[in-house]
Design brief:
Blueprint: E1 2-3, E2 8-9, H1 10-32, H2 38-44, H3 50-62, E3 66-67, E4 77-78, H4 79-87
Antiparallel strand pairs: 1-2, 3-4
Length: about 90
């Protein structure tokens, strides 16, 4: 199955979206020193549904890339960043 006119698979498109969302979170942390809300991620990624963002956040958490609790705004933590900080 391929994603629209881009000619990429759904799996590849999902991977790209996960990377985009992770990048948004990292950039937000650098700028404000706390995580963005689900709505802010949706706006920045041009995603109209917050439930879609939640789906991607859950996938990132399952992969061990982030740590977060649904219903707690600004509580998204990037695991690899925490490991780098504690190793210093």
């Amino acid at each position: 199955m391929y994603y629209g006119e881009l000619g990429i698979s759904v799996k590849e498109r999902t991977k790209q979206r996960e990377e985009e969302i992770l990048s948004i979170i990292k950039q937000y942390w650098k700028k404000y020193n706390y995580s963005p809300t689900v709505r802010e991620i949706a706006k920045k990624a041009s995603i109209t549904s917050t439930s879609t963002v939640l789906k991607y956040l859950n996938k990132l958490q399952e992969k061990g890339v982030i740590e977060w609790q649904n219903k707690k705004p600004r509580e998204i933590k990037i695991i690899e960043e925490q490991r780098n900080v504690s190793a210093s």
